[in-house]
Specification:
The complex is a heterodimer of chains A (91) and B (327).
Chain A: H1 3-18, H2 31-35, H3 39-53, H4 59-63, H5 68-79
Helix pairs in contact in A: 1-3, 1-5
Chain B: E1 3-9, H1 22-33, E2 42-48, H2 52-62, E3 69-73, H3 75-85, E4 90-94, H4 102-107, E5 111-115, H5 122-131, E6 137-143, H6 151-163, E7 170-171, H7 180-188, E8 192-198, H8 201-208, E9 216-218, H9 230-241, E10 246-248, E11 260-264, H10 266-281, E12 292-294, E13 297-302, H11 303-308, H12 315-318, E14 323-325
Parallel strand pairs in B: 1-2, 1-3, 3-4, 4-5, 5-12, 6-8, 6-9, 10-11, 13-14
Antiparallel strand pairs in B: 7-8, 11-13
Helix pairs in contact in B: 1-10, 2-3, 8-9
The chains are: A mainly alpha (91), B alpha/beta (327).
């Protein structure tokens, strides 16, 4: 799993939850304000990510996730992929 | 003078004497830990019934003699104990899904050990997905005559029935469902939730006819044990229609036809309540005990039953169960 795949996978899961095409997602946007993500949708995303990447995200960590960029960064950190440049998905 | 304790036991699914159940043995172990051996230091009368009306009658009869403490297994029994007990200390454990019955127990000063249900946490609940990968819908029937079906839940379901000519099951996206927590868990792990409230076994059987058999999972809770004939009807339905059944909060269910069941750890809860009971018998004030919350669970899997339904649980899924039945 590389950093690009992390972002693609996160976007794929999130797009299905909020019913927005992955390419139209703004990874820096606030999830609640921009996409109407409530606690249930947030937990769904986190749960799917935990399964997909075989990682565990603690409640405290989840509370800090405000954007998709935050989500990707957290996963990268958990997978030991930090410090690697992330290629933008959509230009 | 020798003390006397009355135990209100229920939720018995398999044909076993109450004295042989882990939860009862654990309570007696806890009492003994606090210095009260049964028949030597304390008389323990065990009342055993899956019928709340009968339990209330049995309790009132038992309380004609002096009683020092009541131990109740489960929230409905705790409420019976509080109603009948006239101030006798009540020590119980219960799961309180959606908080049902908790306020009444607290207000009455009962000492509670909360055994948080398996359905409290989405990380635990994901086991359902892993065990039943082909399932798309969770069908949860609730018996209306217990605390787990609150008045508004009952009235919302009745209203739904009068308004629809179709299925009596409410969809998880409806704002009228009574267990939104369970519906939310289903959503999180990618399952659709269906909820039905029934008033007797015939009504349950009628409702079961609306269950989509192709990719459903039956998920009853212990409230169904209080409806005469309902557990057997649910098991029969599961076997005859080939729908897996996952029982919430009673692992005895895997001995009578459920594929899997996960409950709070009743052994731990029994020991803890036994110790608290012993302290109270020694003079401690019930209200001095903080409520204990436990997330410990105990899971039982019937692999044979799973295979009968064409399921082959992966070893890492099987490993998550404390008890695995192979025959």
């Amino acid at each position: 799993m590389d950093t690009v795949n992390v972002e693609e996978t996160v976007l794929k899961h999130f797009a299905a939850i909020v019913h927005v095409a992955p390419k139209k997602l703004d990874t820096g946007a606030n999830l609640a304000a921009e996409y109407g993500v409530d606690s249930l949708k947030a937990l769904k995303l986190i749960s799917e990510i935990e399964v997909e990447f075989d990682i565990d995200i603690e409640e405290d960590e989840a509370r800090c996730l405000k954007s998709l960029d935050d989500v990707v960064e957290l996963i990268k950190a958990k997978l030991g992929l930090t410090g690697t440049a992330v290629r933008p998905l959509a230009s | 003078m020798r003390k006397r304790v009355v135990v209100l036991n229920a939720y018995t699914l398999s044909p076993r004497r109450a004295e042989d159940l882990v939860r009862i043995r654990a309570f007696l172990e806890g009492l003994e830990h606090g210095g009260y051996r049964r028949s030597k230091d304390v008389d323990v009368d065990i009342l055993d019934s899956n019928n709340l009306g009968e339990m209330e009658t049995l309790t009132r009869d038992a309380l004609r003699q002096p009683v020092d403490l009541i131990h109740a297994v489960g929230t409905p029994n705790a409420l019976v104990a509080i109603r009948c007990g006239c101030g006798i200390p009540v020590v119980y454990y219960g799961a309180h899904p959606e908080g049902a019955g908790e306020a009444a127990c607290r207000e009455a000063g009962a000492v509670g050990v909360l055994t948080l249900p398996f359905t409290q946490n989405y990380k635990h609940f994901r086991l359902v997905r892993a065990l039943f990968p082909g399932v798309k819908q969770v069908w949860a029937p609730f018996y209306e005559d217990t605390v787990f079906c609150q008045p508004d839940m009952k009235s919302n379901h009745r209203l739904h029935r009068t308004r629809t000519c179709g299925t009596p099951w409410l969809d998880g996206t409806s704002s009228h469902i009574g267990h939104p927590g369970l519906a939310g868990l289903c959503y999180i792990i990618g399952l659709e939730y269906r909820e039905f409230v029934y008033h007797n076994c015939d009504d349950l059987l009628w409702g079961l006819e609306f269950v989509d058999r192709s990719n459903g999972l039956m998920m009853p809770y212990n409230d169904s044990i209080y409806c005469e004939g309902a557990p057997a009807a649910l098991m029969r339905f599961s076997v005859e229609r080939g729908i897996p059944l996952f029982w919430n909060n009673n692992t005895e269910a895997t001995r009578i036809g459920a594929v899997a069941a996960i409950s709070g750890c009743f052994r731990w809860a029994g020991i803890e309540t036994g110790k608290i009971a012993a302290s109270i018998l020694n003079g401690a004030t019930p209200r001095s005990f903080p409520w204990i919350t436990s997330t410990k669970t105990f899971g039982s899997l019937n692999v044979t039953r799973a295979r009968d339904l064409g399921l082959e649980p992966a070893p890492k899924v099987v490993a998550q169960f404390d008890e695995v039945i192979m025959s």
